[in-house]
């Protein structure tokens, strides 16, 4: 058990089995064949929206390791207004924003229909999982520090 004298509670330390299950979810999602570079863009964008500094730094590092272009990383917050992102990436980023900003009234059905023009149903399910999990990770890291 951690001490609460510094108001710091380490989720990984307190619930290691749950932490490992969360990591295992990513292993299973990877089996859908989603491009890892796309996943890093999605996780980075959600982390930017949620203002999770730990996850932003983490996914920037991963995206660079996967040779993502610096231009895309720089322009990610403005993805809707630039043409450096493919139609497939823009569809995934729109879905990311819709599932991360739940207070908006996005047309989820329309967004899913567009996704299905670029991804198979398993990949859309995987993308949903990636977005759900990065939102979980963002909240865990924000709550920890």
Write a concise synopsis of the structure shown.
Helices cover 68% and strands 0% of the residues. It has helices at residues 11-14, 16-30, 36-50, 53-65, 70-75, 87-100, 108-115, 121-144.
Plain-language structure description:
The chain has 145 residues and is mainly α. The chain has one domain (34-144): Up-down Bundle (AhpD-like). 68% of the residues lie in helices and 0% in strands. It is built from 8 helices and no strands. It has helices at residues 11-14, 16-30, 36-50, 53-65, 70-75, 87-100, 108-115, 121-144. Helix 3 (36-50) packs across helix 8 (121-144). The longest helix is centred in the C-terminal third of the chain and has 24 residues, at 121-144. The two termini are 17 Å apart. The mean pLDDT is 93.
Supply the number of helical segments: 8
CATH architecture: Up-down Bundle
Q: Flag low-confidence runs.
A: none
Main beta sheet strand tally, sense and closure: none
Arithmetic mean of pLDDT: 93
Number of strands: 0
Features:
mainly alpha, AhpD-like, single chain, 8 helices, 145 residues, globular
Q: SSE layout and pairings?
A:
Layout: H1 11-14, H2 16-30, H3 36-50, H4 53-65, H5 70-75, H6 87-100, H7 108-115, H8 121-144
Helix pairs in contact: 2-8, 3-4, 3-6, 3-8, 6-7, 6-8
